[in-house]
Amino acid sequence: MLSDESDIEIVGEAANGRQALLLCSRFGPDLILMDVRMPVMDGLAATKEIKQRYPEISVMMLTMHENPDYLLEALKAGAAGYVLKDAPREEIIEAVRRVRNGETPLDPELAARLLRRLASEGEMRRGTGSPHEAAYAVEPLTPRELEVLGLMKLGRTNRQIAGDLVISLGTAKNHVEHIISKLGVSDRTRAVVQALELGLIDLR
Predict the structure, then answer these.
(1) pLDDT at site 103
(2) Whole-model pTM over 0.90
(3) Which of 32, 38, 52, 167 has the most C-beta neighbours closer than 10 Å?
(4) What does the domain layout of the chain look like in residue ranges?
(5) Which helix (H) or strand (E) holds 63?
(6) CA separation for the pair 169, 160 (Å, rounded)
(7) CA 169 → CA 51, 97, 155, 161, distances in Å?
(8) Are 203 and 148 in contact (CB under 8 A)?
(9) Residue 81 contacts by C-beta under 8 Å, 6 or more apart in sequence?
């Protein structure tokens, strides 16, 4: 499928996570397509180790597992995307290109299930009157940053955020970068996941 695309080159294939690690040192690929469940070393463990050893290599999960727990663990491990194998061919190819452009493509239904669950857990924590302990370790977000975070939750791009808030594109980008930095994550998708886990935002 991918080998038919002129802008994509396949440099190697691995049967398990351990082989994928070895191929990283041999070929230095830009992107790895990783399944979740594999023998010897599963995809989640392999992704975490790859991102620790080779942070410049992107990993996109391509799997049959429609499990929000796997999605969350993949994001925590550093995965740049989570796409189902039964997605249309065009969507998978587009997801590969999106990862290459620095985006984080996620299966929309699975992502929505995860966000709803995290939002519910965040509301439960807020309802106890005791903020989640981890929230204290996060540098406080400004009201404007919380506003931007709410738009990030809706999947808005930097350009769309700039239009919604009537600010410059550069200012919108700076807000997003500050949010990502304060939450201690590596991209906007993980920022939203982290904020929901900490109860900083909800889905309403």
Answers:
(1) 79
(2) no
(3) 32
(4) 2-106, 111-198
(5) strand 58-63
(6) 9
(7) 30, 23, 16, 8
(8) no
(9) 60, 61, 95, 98, 99, 103, 104, 105, 106
Q: CB of 100 within 8 A of CB of 30? A: yes
Give the pLDDT confidence of 103-153 residue by residue, as tens digits: 788 888 888 888 777 777 666 555 555 444 445 457 889 999 999 998 888
Task: Given CATH 3.40.50.2300, say whether it is the number of domain 2-106.
Answer: yes
φ, ψ (nearest 5 deg) of residue 75: -65, -40
Identify the pLDDT of residue 159: 87
Q: Whose CA is closest to 34, among 67, 80, 88?
A: 80
Please tell me the least confidently modeled range out of 94-98, 136-140, 182-186.
136-140
Give 62's strand partners. 83
Report which DSSP code applies to 141.
P
DSSP for 99-115 reads HHTT---B-HHHHHHHH
Using alpha carbons only, how large is the chain's radius of gyration in Å?
18
